[in-house]
Every structure is written in structure tokens, then in C-alpha cells.
């Protein structure tokens, strides 16, 4: 893919891109990885604590405690997005805040806030899934395929 | 009058009779805060959307520039304005409020100097006595349109730039007191195949180089003619690329005299990554900071090279590279021209 793209460039363009590359400060990968690991881990820890709480104090089973746990995490994420903190945490934590379910909630809440000025139906309704929509589409698609494969294997066994 | 292939020399040396710079809350924390005419404490500026807030910035900039020129808006013959919003809504809607005969222009972040060059040409050719050139950008409105939702927690790379919330305007007049516009070079589009919208400085640097090379060739000027050469919004990345490219292409501008508006406006703030960008970047720094320092006598001749990345969110998603442009305007201090007429 990258090679294909490069072939289309003229020699002058290729030379320039090599020169420009030297001036780009590299992404701080080590600190990005560390921060993502730490923040992502903390979010999972909070999730685990919530799950334990729902099991021990609210009599959920291990299977059913998942739903209220995710709901609480989504609520916290949407709240932090609304008060303008989540994007700042996201810049610092990177994948740490975008990979867990909180990142998914943030993508929906932030799009909804942005398009509030265009009205509730066409603005919020029409745009809030503009980032999350692809996650839902391909997530459901993948889940369907995996489910199909699992069922077929079971039938065979 | 045209000189060389793509430059204009203005024999009447049109005057910048009034100029203004309006900024937002983040600009107010920057090192150039004192050079703004008005600074707003909130991104919304009392409006119910960012798009409306940008319009207020632009209208305020126009009003202020006209006021500082000692004129009323009825006296202005034409208005040239543009911005980053789709269909240039900020400029169009401001022109509705001002009711001045209007030509919309778009050069992305190069709009400021595109407008100033055209305004000088209109005045120099006696097509108008007073022309208003203005442009604006708004951080949140631009982020929403070009990138991700403003509150979306994505991590930006160190080559990214921060869109300036601000507007700048200048009234160009056939006579009066103020800095004078001596010449302009209209850039051609340069595309080096760069396609990363988070590295616009890198994409735009070759366009600035092309315009600078042409400017000195067309006007047959020595490379140290200007006390200051300023690019629009190349940021740290673009500034360092251009500093390497210039001597390679035999343009020997003394590098201590070369600065970039995108680096000036926020100083060393690490939260803006490579620096500032947007139509408002070059406009507010030039019309606020640079012209003020010129009047104070710090520089006698400056060359402002506004750079623009002409991409759209659709062209980027379709995998297109970023076409870039740069327009240069040479401004000289009033004292050099022997004062007002």
C-alpha cells in the first residue's frame, strides 16, 4: 500500500518527503505506550471494582453485573465529556482512554454536543453516531460472523 | 503593475489606514496578547454556536479596522473576506451585516494576504479609494468541520497545529497615514504529495519556498532586503523545513530575520504542538503584532508570506494529497515613504 502510493509520486516529491520526514518530531512512543497502559489499566480496575460492588451489594451474578458496570462507566465518560475534561485526558492517555468502552461513549457524546446547534433531530440525532457508527456496524458484523462459526462448529461436534 | 511573471508592484503604495486583531481566550494567554485590540474571555462569545461566535469575531475586526482608519462603513467601497467554514459563511454573513459591496475569497490560511494583495491592487488601479480585507477562524468551529468533534479524546501527534480563534482586518486606502503596501506576489499551487492533515506545516513549506523564490526573482531584490520575512502558519515543523530549503534553493534570507506567525502567537506553549494555524493566525499576528511593531520603528520593511493548505475533509478521506499555496505582500513603514500625503 505504502509502496503503491510512493510510486505515484514524482522524484522531486519523494525527495521532499524524505527531507520533511527528518524535521518531524517523532511520536513519543514509549511514553504513549506507558500512559495508555496505566490509564487503560486504571479504567479496567474501576470497572472491576464496580462489578464486584454490583455482585456483593446488589446481588447481581457475575454474568448480569456486566450491564450495570458498563452503564456506570459510560455515564462517567459522558459526564467528563460534557464538562470538557475527557478530551484533555485523551490527549494525555491516548489509546488508554479510547480503547475501553469509555472511548466509545466519548465519541458519541462529543459528536452529539458538537451538533446540538443544528437541532435535536438533524443535528444530534443525525450526527451522534458519525464516529461510533462504524464501530457498531463492523462490531455487529464481526459478532454475527463469529457467532455463525461457533454455531457451525457446535453442530459439527 | 505586473513585474516579472507573478508579482505586482504598486506605484501609488496604498496605505494600510487602519487594522485590527480580535482574539479568543487562548490567544489572550499567549505572548502577543497586548497586540490584540479585543480579547474575548469565552470561546462562545455570548452566542449559541461556534459558527456565530466566529462571525462576531469577524464583524468586530471589520468595525474596529474601519474605526481606526477614521472612517465609517459607508465610505468603504469594497470588502474582500474569506474564512475556513464551508461556503465561507463567516465572511458572507458578516458582509450581510456590514452591507459593503462584497467579494468572497478563499485561500484557506493564506486568505489574509490574498485579500490584502487584492485590496492593494484595487486601490492602486484606482478602482476604489477604500477597500476592507478581512478574515477569521475559530478553533472549535474548524475542529468540528475539519477533524473530530471538539470534545473527542483523540491524541494528536507533535506535528499537529492549533487553529487560532481570531479575526483580523485591514482598511487599504489610496492616501492617509500608516504602513504602505509596496508589492505582492501571487503564489501558485504546490503539491508535494503530503497527505497528513496533522502535518500541514510540512505540506505548506514548499509553497512558501516557491513564492519567496519568485518574489525575489520578479522584483530583483537582494535577499536581505527585508528586515523581517514572516510566514503565515508553518509552525515549528514547517519553519525548520523552510529554513533548510531556502539556502538549498539559493535564497539566502538571513535566518535570524525569518519568523513564523504560528510560532509567534503562542510562544513555546507545548499544548499547541507545532504552533498556531488558521486564517486568523497570519491575520491577527500581521494586523496586530507586526504592524504595531512597525509603527514603533522596530522594522522598516517586512514581507508577509501567508500559507494555505487547500484541503477538505472529503478530499482527505478520498486519499488526495494536500495542495498548498502562499501569497506574499511587502509592507514598508510610513517613515520610509516620507510620511502621509
What would you note in describing this structure?
The complex is a heterodimer of chains A (157) and B (341). Chain A has helices at 2-8, 11-23, 29-58, 66-82, 86-93, 95-98, 101-114, 120-127, 132-156. Helix content of chain A is 80%, strand content 0%. By secondary structure, chain A is mainly α. Chain A has a domain at 29-129. Chain B is an alpha/beta fold. Chain B folds into two domains: 2-173, Peroxisomal Thiolase, Chain A, domain 1, CATH 3.40.47.40; 180-337, Stage V sporulation protein AD (Peroxisomal Thiolase, Chain A, domain 1). Chain B has helices spanning 25-28, 50-68, 89-98, 111-124, 139-146, 200-219, 235-248, 261-264, 279-295, 313-317; strands at 2-3, 7-9, 15-23, 38-39, 78-83, 102-104, 130-137, 162-163, 166-173, 180-185, 228-231, 258-260, 276-277, 301-309, 324-332. In chain B, the strands form three sheets. Chain B has a seven-stranded mixed β-sheet with strand order 1-2-10-15-14-11-12, with helices on both faces. In chain B, helix 2 (50-68) crosses helix 3 (89-98) and helix 6 packs parallel to helix 7 (235-248). The radius of gyration of chain B is 18 Å and the shape is globular. The model of chain B has no long low-confidence stretch (mean pLDDT 96). Chain A: Keywords: Membrane, Transmembrane, Transmembrane helix. Chain A: This is Stage V sporulation protein AC. Chain A: It comes from Brevibacillus centrosporus. Chain A: InterPro entries: Spore_V_AC, SpoVA.
Sequence-ordered SSE layout with sheet pairings:
The complex is a heterodimer of chains A (157) and B (341).
Chain A: H1 2-8, H2 11-23, H3 29-58, H4 66-82, H5 86-93, H6 95-98, H7 101-114, H8 120-127, H9 132-156
Chain B: E1 2-3, E2 7-9, E3 15-23, H1 25-28, E4 38-39, H2 50-68, E5 78-83, H3 89-98, E6 102-104, H4 111-124, E7 130-137, H5 139-146, E8 162-163, E9 166-173, E10 180-185, H6 200-219, E11 228-231, H7 235-248, E12 258-260, H8 261-264, E13 276-277, H9 279-295, E14 301-309, H10 313-317, E15 324-332
Parallel strand pairs in B: 3-4, 5-6, 5-7, 8-13, 11-12, 11-14
Antiparallel strand pairs in B: 1-2, 2-10, 3-9, 7-9, 10-15, 14-15
Helix pairs in contact in B: 2-3, 6-7
Amino acid at each position: 500500500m505504502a509502496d503503491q502510493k510512493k510510486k505515484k509520486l514524482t522524484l522531486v516529491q519523494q525527495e521532499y518527503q524524505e527531507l520533511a520526514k527528518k524535521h518531524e518530531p517523532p511520536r513519543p512512543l514509549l511514553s504513549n505506550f506507558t500512559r495508555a497502559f496505566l490509564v487503560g489499566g486504571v479504567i479496567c480496575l474501576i470497572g472491576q471494582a464496580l462489578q464486584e460492588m454490583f455482585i456483593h451489594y446488589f446481588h447481581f451474578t457475575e454474568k448480569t453485573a456486566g450491564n450495570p458496570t458498563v452503564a456506570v462507566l459510560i455515564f462517567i465518560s459522558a459526564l467528563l465529556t460534557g464538562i470538557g475534561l475527557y478530551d484533555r485526558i485523551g490527549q494525555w492517555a491516548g489509546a488508554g482512554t479510547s480503547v475501553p468502552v469509555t472511548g466509545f461513549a466519548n465519541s458519541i457524546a462529543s459528536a452529539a454536543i458538537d451538533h446540538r446547534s443544528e437541532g435535536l433531530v438533524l443535528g444530534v440525532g443525525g450526527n451522534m453516531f458519525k464516529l461510533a457508527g462504524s464501530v457498531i456496524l463492523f462490531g455487529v458484523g464481526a459478532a454475527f460472523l463469529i457467532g455463525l462459526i461457533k454455531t457451525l462448529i457446535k453442530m459439527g461436534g | 503593475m505586473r513585474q516579472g511573471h507573478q508579482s505586482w508592484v504598486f506605484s501609488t503604495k496604498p496605505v494600510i489606514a487602519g487594522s485590527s486583531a480580535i482574539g479568543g481566550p487562548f490567544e489572550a494567554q499567549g505572548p502577543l496578547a497586548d497586540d490584540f485590540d479585543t480579547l474575548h474571555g469565552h470561546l462562545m462569545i455570548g452566542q449559541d454556536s461556534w459558527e456565530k461566535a466566529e462571525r462576531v469575531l469577524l464583524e468586530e475586526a471589520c468595525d474596529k479596522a474601519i474605526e481606526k482608519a477614521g472612517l465609517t462603513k459607508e465610505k468603504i467601497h469594497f470588502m474582500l473576506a474569506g474564512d475556513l467554514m464551508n461556503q465561507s459563511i463567516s465572511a458572507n454573513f458578516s458582509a450581510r451585516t456590514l452591507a459593503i459591496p462584497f467579494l468572497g475569497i478563499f485561500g484557506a490560511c493564506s486568505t489574509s494576504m490574498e485579500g490584502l494583495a487584492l485590496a492593494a491592487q484595487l486601490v492602486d488601479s484606482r478602482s476604489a479609494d477604500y477597500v476592507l480585507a478581512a478574515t477569521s477562524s475559530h478553533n472549535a468551529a474548524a475542529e468540528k468541520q475539519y477533524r473530530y468533534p471538539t470534545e473527542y479524546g483523540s491524541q494528536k501527534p507533535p506535528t499537529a497545529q492549533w487553529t487560532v480563534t481570531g479575526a483580523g482586518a485591514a482598511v487599504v486606502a489610496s492616501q492617509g497615514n500608516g504602513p504602505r503596501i509596496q508589492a505582492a506576489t501571487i503564489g501558485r499551487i504546490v503539491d508535494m504529495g503530503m497527505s497528513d492533515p496533522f502535518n500541514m506545516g510540512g505540506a505548506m513549506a514548499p509553497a512558501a519556498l516557491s513564492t519567496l523564490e519568485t518574489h525575489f526573482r520578479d522584483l530583483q531584490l537582494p535577499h536581505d532586503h527585508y528586515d523581517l520575512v514572516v510566514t503565515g502558519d508553518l509552525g515549528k515543523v514547517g519553519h525548520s523545513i523552510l529554513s533548510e530549503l531556502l539556502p538549498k534553493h539559493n535564497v539566502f534570507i538571513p535566518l535570524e530575520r525569518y519568523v513564523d506567525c504560528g510560532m509567534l502567537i503562542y510562544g513555546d506553549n507545548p499544548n499547541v504542538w507545532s504552533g498556531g494555524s488558521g486564517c486568523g493566525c497570519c491575520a491577527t499576528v500581521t494586523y496586530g503584532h507586526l504592524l504595531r511593531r512597525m509603527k514603533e520603528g522596530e522594522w522598516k520593511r517586512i514581507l508577509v508570506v501567508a500559507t494555505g493548505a487547500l484541503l477538505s475533509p472529503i478530499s482527505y478521506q478520498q486519499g488526495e494529497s494536500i495542495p498548498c499555496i502562499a501569497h506574499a505582500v511587502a509592507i514598508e513603514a510610513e517613515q520610509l515613504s516620507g510620511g502621509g500625503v
